Amino acid sequence: MAKQFQKVRGMNDVLPERARLFDHVIKSFMQSAEAAGYGHIETPVIEDEALFIRTSGEGTDVVDKEMYNFEDRGGHRVALRPEGTAGVARAYIENGMASLPQPVRLYYIADMFRYERPQAGRSRQHKQIGVEMFGDPNPSADAQVITLLARIYRQAGLRNVGLQINSIGDQTCRAKYRKDFVDYLEEHVDKLPDLDRDRLRRNPLRVLDSKDPVTQEVLNDAPQMLNYLCADCQKHFSGVLEYLDELGVNYEVNHRLVRGLDYYTRTVFEFYGQREGAMSALGGGGRYDLLLGELGTKPTPAVGFGSGVERIVIEMEAEEDLPLINEQGGVYVASLGEPARLAAFHMIEELLDAGIKACGSVDKDGIGSQLARADKLDVKYAVIIGQKEVKEGTVLLRDMASGAQETITATEIANELAKRL
Ligand code: HAM
Q: Using CA positions, which residue lies closest to atom 7 of ligand 1?
């Protein structure tokens, strides 16, 4: 027997029922981002591997363990993008967007690739919605990026979304913190599990992210970054919180929040859904004022977020009364008898030409099973054509909810439906 192919581990098919939710999230994201002055950007799936190593950072899981990297046929080291910020920052520089009026606001909907251990809400290819704002150093920019993401979750119908926020300082204050933090952990290193010892060696701040109960206990008495912020970082952080307070946005300051990528400075934030533990953040982001300078252009402040569409959809599916997304209002064309079949076939095309959502199974089935199918499809109306209707140049218009039927002239039906739907 021929081999039955299966999807590669960690990859997902998204079937129409779920894809509808994906599309809903993406459409509402695009509308909200456009309304807030963001322009759509598409960057390649494949970038120079070194771009991600330079930006996300050596010692992060994303770079060390999860990258889909390989040598292409020309011998270049490339990678499938694990995240969106690096590519968009590269495009901003490479396309001279620094000379545009600042800030430059960009948004993307893009597939990301990370070789992670697959589970619900964690796959090796995931679709992300994200924004990046370049050129605005002010706390109001951070707050606006956060409220944009909060709005997208609201519009998706999610009601129990929590926001955690922290500041991880800048190059001056973080160095001092890092030293004291490492000194503290070194004193307790014998208690730490292997994984966290390894983190301590390679990327110490990542220890803050540890889920290990023993590490958590050690961390209880560890120095806290918020006590180390320099005056400027302190002022920036208070500014962001004040703007959020101003808008009545609820948040929790979590002094252990560090995020899994190295490019952040100052503000970092994450949103969580109600499915605690099952998956990590719904979305997250922060400020990365040093990244563009590190990519060899003039220092440019920047802030943004990314959120996995599948994680949003999983949360939507868990909501009790999801806003009605199924676009109702379509028409099912049913027919009875030979000449009527052809009339129905024409009718479907005519309705589609008029911009009306229409379908029908022209080639088979009795009228009963056709109407049952119309019911399943949740259409508002069925157009029924039998031999009598063909002869008289009419159709029966059936209101699927009430079952009421009326006779309408065939040439009038497109207009009539356009009015009613
Ligand atoms: P991130 O936190 O690594 O940030 O990813 C953003 C979001 O992508 C996560 O919160 C999650 O919703 C989703 N995500 C990540 N990995 C997976 C996965 N394996 N399966 C499903 N969903 C996943 C970034 O990528 C930054 N570029 C965000 C950013 C933009 N920061 C500033 N600007």
A: 307
Distance CA 347, CA 385 (A): 9
Rounded CA gap, 287 and 232, in Å? 14
Task: Using the CB atoms, write b or e for 21-59: b if 16+ within 10 Å.
Answer: bbebbbebbeebbeebebeebebebbbebebbbbbbbeb
pLDDT digits 0-9 by tens, 58-81: 888 899 899 999 999 999 999 999
DSSP 332-355: EEEE-SHHHHHHHHHHHHHHHHTT
Q: Domain limits at 361? A: 331-420
Give the relative orientation of helices 338-353 and 413-420 as an angle to the nearest 10 degrees. 50
Compute the distance from residue 204 Cα to the ligand 1 centre, in Å: 21
213 lies in some domain: no
Residue 114 and residue 65 share a domain: yes
Q: Does some domain include residue 297?
A: yes
The pTM assigned to this predicted structure is: 0.89
Pair 261, 402 in one domain: no
What is the tens place of the pLDDT at every residue in 240-260?
999 999 999 999 999 999 988
Interhelix angle for 16-35 vs 139-155, to 10°? 150
Pocket (CB within 6 angstroms of ligand 1): 83-85, 114, 116, 121-123, 126, 128, 130, 132, 260-261, 281-286, 304-308, 310-311
Same domain, yes or no, for 35 and 161?
yes
